[in-house]
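[job 0412] stage=fold_complex status=start
inputs:
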Amino acid sequence: MTAAEGRYSKLRADISLTSIAFGNFRNRRRQYLLLTVAIMLALYFVTTMLLFASTMFTSLRERHYQRFGEQDIIFFDAAREPMTELLTGGILTNDYGKAAIYGYVMPDGQSKANGFSVAVFDEKALALARKDVLAGRLPERAGEIALEQSMLARLRTKAELGDTLALTLAVPDGVDFLDSTVQKNYKLVGIISDKLIYLDEWNSALPVYRDFPAGILSPAEEITAGGKAVINVYGRYADSSSFKQLLDLYFAHTEQQNENRGLPFEDTRYVLFADDSSGEDIIITYVFLIIIVFVLVLAACLGIINAFTSNLEARKQQLGLLRAVGATQKQLREILGRETSLLALFSIPLALLFSCLTVWGLTKAMGESYIFRLNALVLLGVATGGFLCVRLAASIPLRAAAKVSPMQAIRNVELARIMRRSKIASEQHFDVPLLLAKRSRTLYQNKRLGITAMLSVTIVLMSLVVFFAEPLLREADYHYGSDYYLRRNARSYDWLLEYDFHAPGITEQDKEDAAALFSVKTVRGEKVIRLKLLTDKVTPYITNGWNFAYLTGAADGSSNEAGREWRLKEQQSYLASKEKYGYKQDYLTVDCYAIDYENIEKLAPFVAAGSINPEKLAAGKEILIVAPTKYGVYEVQNRDGTWSKRRDFIIDPKENYTEVYQNDMFQAGDTLTISLLYSDAEPAQHGSPQQYDADGSRILPDDVVRIDRTVTIGAILEMTAGKKHLYEFFDSFYPEEVGALVTTAAGLQALGFDAPYSTLAITLSESPDAATEEYLEANLSQIASRTAGVEMVSLVARTREKKRIVYGTLIAATAIIILFFTICASMVNNALSARIRAGKREIGTIRAVGASQQVILSSYLWQLAAMFGWGTIIGMTAELALCLWLQKYENIGLVTTVLPTWQPLLFAALLFALCYLNIRAKVKSIVKDSIVANIREL
Amino acid sequence: MQILQCQNLCKDYTIGENIVHAIRDISIGFEQGEICAVRGPSGSGKSTLLHMLGGLEYPTSGNVFYQNEDLYAYNDNQLSILRRRRFGFVFQAYNLVQELTAYENILLPVLLDKKKPDKKYLTMLIEILGLEHRLDHLPSALSGGQQQRVAIARALANKPAILFADEPTGNLDGKTGREVLSLLKYASKEMGVTLIMVTHDLHIAEQAERIILLEDGSVTDDSGRREVQQIES
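[job 0412] stage=fold_complex status=done
writing structure:
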């Protein structure tokens, strides 16, 4: 044969195989339609999940960018050393921008409290910082300004675009600020999206040298004479390890060894996990996600394998014929492989299209904060992966099908082979349907294993969904008690004193303004300050609390060497503070909560001794103290093997406490001396205001004020009253500490300890519609923005979001269960349908010897029951064991969840019923024909 | 006494747009204990006639009476009961249930009837048919002749009144075929079973007392026939 002839013959062979494949396609349109639908469904589920995850990721990232900007890092005062060196160290890409801070706005004209900086941004910095213009434009000429929306509230002005703002500015001079402030008039030309209120959330910055400018000036603007701009840099990391490199470099250049004392840069990159997530949590989350994806892909592959197996089973005779006329196994595989490719090419685009539409629809339904973006990479990945998945999944049944014997064209060789190998003894007396079912089980044993496995897995998955559904739904229905909070985050205090005591907070005016809003029913205010209880008597009842560790310097078992050393130093600082500030007695630093008069009486159930007298509280004569009658201490082992102490304020008779302490410190009617020790100096670092000297000892400030008062204990409060806990009646973070004080806002004022509100809890008269919610959020945000460090928390939105996530999760889980359900049903039905088809002649024979339709149906019913029996038993056993383990050994709040028992049984029954109906229909369609038609040879 | 009769029996098949008249207006009767062969060329309607007489296929028109009862007035259940109690079938392709052993195949009609098997009778049947050493075998392990014997045993297990045999020796060699035919005749004679046998083989047909010749769906000859007794409707 010449080369041309060889090529020609090969070409003819290729065309022949493809022609056969196309021919099969044409002639078996109905079967292939079903196969296409099966493949499409399988891919649709996987694609939808992946696209949805991608959408969530995109949406969360976009939300981050909108709030914090697209930069990875903001360097403060970057012109100083070692900042310039850090900038050139290869940490950032070359694409960074600068903002030159020209001044710090003082809203009250006098102090830097509640202020913000204004700067000239270059193009790059504007883009990275996402200074999106909401109204108007960016400044173009000197004397123009654009402000973040919340800053107008900070300035307490109703100015609109085009109005002139008279601002008092502190001007940086390269070291600090110029001696005098300056007055400047700016024309408000633009409103830009808020960033400062988000960036500042937990980190109330000091002015200028560590600040996020919230006002934009024109490039044509010039700094006040004598001033020197402070340069902030907005940049992107060069790679994923850049932040670590930056830290290492910075620590190498300075005396600072850790982040505790603040850093001159802020890491604002978007991360899926917070930096403080433990490695174990991240691994668990990734493993969980991988398992989900794996389960989905596995289900998809099983569905495809099942669909192909069923299709090929029905074609065994055709395949046998092809082999009988001379097709090799390889040729058969090629024909079937081409059919598979054609199917995949047809199914995948449809699956992708429907997935995109589904995810788009879901995203639209979830609201504006969710963004649907067609991720080309995901689509390409799914298309390629889907094609490979189909080819791979189909290859398993294809290989088996290609090995079919040519004799299969004439009779069922495979079954004959199995029969020859089976050891069967005659039964002397039998129930006909039962015996037929039993024999089928023996002969089709292998095929049953897949069904058993699939059914077991489906039952386990379904049970897990049921198991987690109840606590999830409970979580979704959780009522926070209020609908909105305004919360002041930027308190600076510790056991020693209150720092920046008179810093602005939530005012009475803010409370009134909130109460005046439409749909607001009540506004509950709460103030919290740190006070000292002076006492000569300190017993273990008190010193067991971690708040008072400074008294003894004691550490619990969880502390390492450095921690123990630090506690001893704290004790030394405590003793030094007593001397410095003139405390002859020991002092217990506790939180004092001042709540509204209307709410104080709700604490009556918690009174263990004495009584609540609101008038005496308001007059500053009495105070309430939290001092449980008794509590138990027990030890728990930490993951690192060390032991920690825990306290139980409800004594559990079953618990083995190491100690039980009785209240031997406080009695109703006792006189208490309470002391407020505060400083008005701005702390070096909000949130961590302590300063230490070279050997780690605490520096005790000089400019402090001490105010002592004497009060009577009006009532002793327990932590709990029945099922209620004291913390439910407080809005601030309640540390569950013995010795905490409670009074009214008026009482606090009467004592001379007045402070702004720490929290406002706002309750609405009814659930808000979308317009009302938008109105409330806008107005409450404005009120919150008046004070630096105050955030507005929408529990309405949080509840809705939580419900959305819970319901979304449950819907997704249900969708997966439905997929598995469908695959199970399909596998069972395909197996039994194949047997019915193959046993058509047997059916005719049995009918001919006098069996009724019911007898025939019963035999298949028994086969169906056999298929379900083991799968259900194994599935139920596995899920009960798993749920018990989760309940007992993993502390994930599922203690009260009932084990799923009837739900998986109901599921199995439903599936059984569905399969039975299908079998019944199939048998009926066969017995509808005459007996002769059944037994007639093909 | 005529145990089985058909009157004006017709069967038509529709194939595409064409109608095929497989059986054209046949009226015949069969006596108790009679051995009858139905003969004719391929496609003459022999098997179709047998199937309709045995209640396996519904006629297009006409009636079949068993002991003066219209067969096709019964519902499916009643027909099934009649088939397992009063009729026995032997097919050319044996048609044994592949998942059951030889013994279980034989027992099938008895147990479908929820009766206790008559062990003595069955043992005798099995001995006569020479199946003693094959009872625990699946059909796939039996030869053609053995399978046909099992089919005969199954057909006789419930002591039927009528035995229908459709080309019972068609798949067998000459010697085995003759053996099977002898068994059928013996069963008919000894048990008083009416044997209606379809065959295209003249030699086989000549073994019968009566030969009905079928051509193109009609009876063209019926040597040894009895007069059809009209059934009062």
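[job 0412] summary: Confidence is low (pLDDT under 50) at residues 11-15 of chain A.
[job 0412] exit 0
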